[in-house]
Amino acid sequence: MQPITTEIVSRTIIKRPADSYKGTYGRVMLIGGNQNFGGAIIMAATAATYSGAGLVTVATDPTNFTSLHAQLPEAMVMDYHQTDALLQLLAGMDVIVIGPGLGTDTVADQLLSTVLTATHAPQRLVLDGSALTLLAQHSRALPATDIVVTPHQMEWQRLSGIAIKDQTPTANHDAQQRLGVTAVVKAHRTTVYTNERVWFNPGGTPAMATGGMGDTLAGMIGGFVGQFDNFTNAILSAVYLHSAIADDLAATRYVVLPHQISAQIPRYMHRFSQETPAES
Ligand SMILES: NC(=O)C1=CN([C@@H]2O[C@H](COP(=O)(O)OP(=O)(O)OC[C@H]3O[C@@H](n4cnc5c(N)ncnc54)[C@H](OP(=O)(O)O)[C@@H]3O)[C@@H](O)[C@H]2O)[C@@H](O)CC1
Ligand SMILES: Nc1ncnc2c1ncn2[C@@H]1O[C@H](COP(=O)(O)OP(=O)(O)O)[C@@H](O)[C@H]1O
Ligand SMILES: [Mg+2]
């Protein structure tokens, strides 16, 4: 196991080229937020936007439109029941994040199938939350493109079949190889599994144990993989920054809330972009 280092983050978060525009930084669609879990997709979309995604579209239940816009006017919205319109929009996306607050009813199940069928390389896919629970219920073909799953320990148990107490790095890596996708297994010390390697995140604090913290990470990963070419390094950098921000905030706070993390992302990205070694 190797630690995720600040050097990886500095190499990944590069200064923005002057000759660029919003399209340069990723068209990201986030799909989720049923009538009960609207907050989850709002937190994920907020994190993606504050992570620098150039254009953010949220496909959600219409009951969430107003609250989403009140929090995040930068985001566009669409009703996720409108399958034809969704398919049309999906075709133009660089990154699709599905799962935060999606739920597991038949609408959610259908949406996941639609996304798995419609996504094609080089589009990148982030599967989180309810999408993982649905995926574990019956196996489906995954598109041949960059995919990352971001389970907590119970979601990983459902997906991999490994009981929480048996989730060792070796067992998790074997399961990741079988699944063929990058796996971010979230815990106090989150571990990341790629085809080549096992990484561990040195940061993280129990002050992060609040609903929405993982939704925020999923949005950050969506924002990062839409901007930074190296898929693994983009994921590692998002995992690292998410907890590094929390650790700093927790120095003076008993709990850290997801929206407080998102508010700090641009400042931390700026800092790491200034540290980019001149030769890289
Ligand atoms: N504001 C919103 O809209 C929010 C919406 N959300 C959305 O809700 C949806 C469902 O996601 P979920 O994670 O809440 O529920 P689920 O997948 O059933 O897992 C919980 C079960 O697993 C167990 N468990 C064991 N270990 C665990 C661990 N390390 N971490 C976590 N759980 C662990 C746990 O055990 P217990 O707590 O009972 O001891 C329990 O039995 C999803 O779409 C998500 O995005 C949330 O983000 C919250 C904010
Ligand atoms: N005790 C802890 N120490 C470090 N990180 C934690 C701790 N508790 C929760 N987290 C982090 O918070 C996030 C929780 O994710 P998840 O359970 O998916 O939340 P949600 O679905 O409510 O958004 C993960 O990134 C996890 O690593
Ligand atoms: Mg979650």
From TrEMBL:
Query: Which NCBIfam families did the record assign?
Result: yjeF_cterm
Keyword list, A-Z:
ATP-binding, Lyase, NAD, NADP, Nucleotide-binding
Similarity field: Belongs to the NnrD/CARKD family.
Q: How does it assemble?
A: Homotetramer.
Which residues hold (6S)-NADPHX? 40, 101, 152, 215
Show the catalytic activity: (6S)-NADHX + ADP = AMP + phosphate + NADH + H(+); (6S)-NADPHX + ADP = AMP + phosphate + NADPH + H(+)
Q: Where is the YjeF C-terminal domain?
A: 5-272
In terms of Pfam families, this protein maps to:
Carb_kinase
Give the protein's cofactors: Mg(2+)
Q: What is the lineage of its organism?
A: Bacteria, Bacillati, Bacillota, Bacilli, Lactobacillales
Q: Which domain of life is it from?
A: Bacteria
Which species is the source of this protein? Lactiplantibacillus pentosus
The name on file for this protein is ADP-dependent (S)-NAD(P)H-hydrate dehydratase
Residues annotated to bind AMP: 186-190, 214
Q: What does this protein do?
A: Catalyzes the dehydration of the S-form of NAD(P)HX at the expense of ADP, which is converted to AMP. Together with NAD(P)HX epimerase, which catalyzes the epimerization of the S- and R-forms, the enzyme allows the repair of both epimers of NAD(P)HX, a damaged form of NAD(P)H that is a result of enzymatic or heat-dependent hydration.
Under which EC number(s) is this enzyme classified? 4.2.1.136
Q: Where is the signal peptide?
A: none
Q: List GO molecular-function terms, semicolon-separated.
A: ADP-dependent NAD(P)H-hydrate dehydratase activity; ATP binding; NAD(P)HX epimerase activity
The biological processes this protein is annotated with in GO are: metabolite repair; nicotinamide nucleotide metabolic process
